[in-house]
Structure formats: structure tokens, C-alpha cells
Amino acid sequence: MSTTKTKLLCTLLFAFVLVISLTACSQFSPDDASNAVSYEGKALIIELEENPTTGFSWSYTISDTDVIHLVEDVYTEDSEDPEVVGGGGMHQYKFEGLSAGEATIIFDYFKSWEGEETAEDHVEYTVIVNEDGTIAEVNQ
């Protein structure tokens, strides 16, 4: 085999192995997340994609807990293929409006042992609540 053909074959083989390696190493990224927000009455539901098997999880803070507070926090694995090890799922946060005002709910996606400053994703929701506790508006 000539030197030119050998070099070409090695280059193509290297490119193929590189593409396969990069594809195999891909994982869930919160940037790909489909975030869902819904509200009715006093209830606000925020759903965020999460894959805790990677070490990442969402953490939240509320700027004013007199205006809104967390009622429930549930993670559900994807049910499409329960045989998949390390698959992701959805993290659902249920909040309840309490009194008139504006509060910001901040979510950060990071590994707990690395700290919040290493967050891979950051999402903020501004929530406006009426006097009776009903959710008037939610903005991202």
C-alpha cells in the first residue's frame, strides 16, 4: 500500500473513531431542557428536565416566601424506556401563592459537592401574586 493511501486511510479512521467517541460521550444537557410552566388559581407548577445520575440536580431559592412557597418537590424518571440505566426525567416543583406581591424563584443546575457557583444552567421566574394568593402572572 502506498504512503499516500496509508495516510488517507489513517486520517479517515481517526475521524471515524473521533466521531463515534464524541457521540458515545454525549449526555443530557440542561440547555436542551424543555421547561414547562403552568398556573391556575393559587397553584404554580414548574417542571425542569433533570438527570441526577450525572450528579447534577436543580436547587431553588425564593426571594420572598411571604408571597409564594414550595408545596411539593417530586422527581419522576422517564418512563419511555425503564431499562435504560442513567436516563433522565422531570423534576416537578409545585408552589402556592400566599399574599399579594412579587417574588423571584431562581433555579440552578449543579453538582452539590461542587457548589452553586459551578452551575451548568440558571433559570429565573418572576411571579406576581394577587391579594387572595392567586397567581396573576409568571415571567421567565
From TrEMBL:
Q: Which InterPro entries does UniProt cross-reference here?
A: Chagasin-like_sf, Cys_protease_inhibitor_I42, Prot_inh_I42_chagasin
Q: Which residues form the Proteinase inhibitor I42 chagasin domain?
A: 41-127
Protein name stated in the entry: Protease inhibitor I42 family protein
PROSITE patterns, alphabetized: PROKAR_LIPOPROTEIN (PS51257)
Q: Identify the domain of life.
A: Bacteria
Where does the secretion signal sit in this chain?
A: 1-26
Annotated organism of origin? Proteiniclasticum aestuarii
Give the GO molecular function terms: cysteine-type endopeptidase inhibitor activity
Keyword terms, alphabetized: Protease inhibitor, Signal, Thiol protease inhibitor
